[in-house]
Write a structure and sequence with these properties.
ADP-ribosylation fold; 3-stranded antiparallel sheet; single chain; 193 residues
């Protein structure tokens, strides 16, 4: 096998493993018998052994590579490197301990055209997750929207929301979080940047 094919296979394996880690660290820890603490942390050694027992063998080095190289920085290791958690996006109860912050004046949300009428009428809801995810970056928000179809970029009047009493948090990987975005704070962004 040539070097390009080996690198591609390794990258595919890491991407697949990252998706599996998202599943167990954000949504279904019980799938492999994992327990998250109240802040979403779990011991790295326990994660590795339970992944292996479930047929997803993962070395400590590969796990660290996933944490380090993830384009969305989905995961964080504790300062001492003994625990891991997802940075946000949980559907299981966790308290990430993020302090409330004043957001930038405008935040962005990527979605698809098919959801646009509903969102413009009803706003953005967190649905099964703990928060609505917002971005400062048009390219990031567009990429999120493009995962499920033709991307549409929405502009959120975060300054007005904050002034009206809505609470915002910022995750370790820079994603802005809020409970909901009512429709009156939303508009279509002029162009995808």
């Amino acid at each position: 096998m040539n070097t390009n094919k080996k690198n591609s296979a390794a990258q595919n394996r890491l991407a697949s493993t990252s998706k599996f880690l998202s599943l167990v660290l954000r949504h279904q820890p019980g799938l492999i018998g994992l327990v998250l603490d109240e802040a979403g942390w779990t011991p790295v050694n326990e994660l590795l052994s339970k992944c292996a027992a479930a047929g997803h063998v993962l070395s400590r080095e590969a796990l660290e590579e996933i944490v380090r190289s993830s384009d969305k920085q989905r995961f964080a290791l504790s300062e001492d490197g003994t625990r891991i958690r997802a940075n946000q996006g949980h559907s299981v109860p966790v308290d990430l301990g993020l302090p409330p912050l004043a957001p930038p004046a405008v935040l962005l949300h990527g979605t698809t055209k098919r959801f646009l009428p509903s969102i413009l009428a009803q706003g953005l809801a967190r649905r099964a997750r703990h928060h609505v995810h917002l971005s400062e970056s048009a390219s990031t928000a567009t990429a999120v929207g493009a995962r499920r179809g033709d991307a549409v970029l929405l502009k959120v009047d975060a300054a007005r929301m904050h002034a009206d009493g809505h609470v915002f948090h910022r995750s370790a990987n820079g994603v802005w979080l809020t409970d909901a975005v009512p429709a009156q704070y939303l508009s279509l962004a002029e162009a995808l940047q």
